[in-house]
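Quick illustration for those who missed Monday's session on complexes.
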Amino acid sequence: MKDIRTLSLEQLTQYFISLGEKPFRAKQVYDWLWSKNLHSIEEMTNLSKELREKIAQEYTINPITVDELQKSTDGTIKNGVKLHDGLLVESVLIPTETRTTACVSSQVGCSLNCEFCATARLKRMRNLEVAEIVDQVALIDRQSKLYFDRPLSNIVFMGMGEPMMNYKNVVESIKKMTDPTGMGMSPRRITVSTSGIPKMIRMLADENLRVKLAFSLHSAIEKKRNEIMPFSGKFPLTEIMESLQYWYSNTGNPITFEYCVWKNINDTDEDIKALIRFCKQVPSKVNLIQYNPIGDGKYDQCNKEAEENYVRQLEKAGITVLIRRSRGGDIDAACGQLANKSSD
Ligand code: SAH
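Prediction with S-adenosyl-L-homocysteine bound:
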């Protein structure tokens, strides 16, 4: 049976008209689905019982369910989320003093092959549906209220998958999250993180969504980046930079560069110089991400001195740099550790 959440408001309206119902019924149902995140047609209490039964004969709702919930000692919650076809993704709640961030997945597995990332070891099975992405956000909002007494404040597309490879559904899910008559999230609190597909970065810039963009750079030396992230051979850094400049000129939003510093891989002055040259070409800041080992023996977090060297030189060059400490590492909920380990 078809999920009623695949229908647009217009399609829902047409559906109710075809049933001989008033068009405003569509808005009522839409509100249950996208504002209240209701997962049961039966519970749409402002519709008559007959109408609810009629809808249920034709449509279903396929919600995500929490298969396993793990809590980290630092408050991070990792949800192993089951989709209607039994596949699993992971969605993480990351609390700080003042905010709650939802780290959501956009694909089951990933088709990219970043050597340092655990998700890359999973085959890409399929893209997530719009409702499956929105459900993760609604789930974490409920958990934030339950465990931290406050609503969700931020969303990052930094879970499993490459958001740009599920472009259409990611964009539609953002529209649903930010719809003032729906969830009403501020787009400024949503970050799309990408490994860098120039054509898609330009497309997203044209959507006028007002979300933030993060680009997983990790090395500004072309040859090195291609070794670390083999798929990136198809996308030269100059082309990526042009798309980032396009992003900035269209949105006025600076770009965040995500960057891990690994021992004996990208911890030299030469790496830093290349990064500075890269950053200088577009308004941006650098997030130095603490590396979460995935047990491959090749990638290791750099030592303290190398990290401090990065910070010092970037700051000297006038570039804003933040160190993003890892969260949820004890439950494999941290960046690049999402690989359904619990379900093996
Ligand atoms: N595919 C998207 C979003 C998912 S990954 C992207 O590449 O941006 C989110 C971030 O975690 C990326 O910056 C990625 O490079 C980083 N990451 C992947 N594995 C990691 C690991 N083991 N430790 C720390 N960060 C990691």
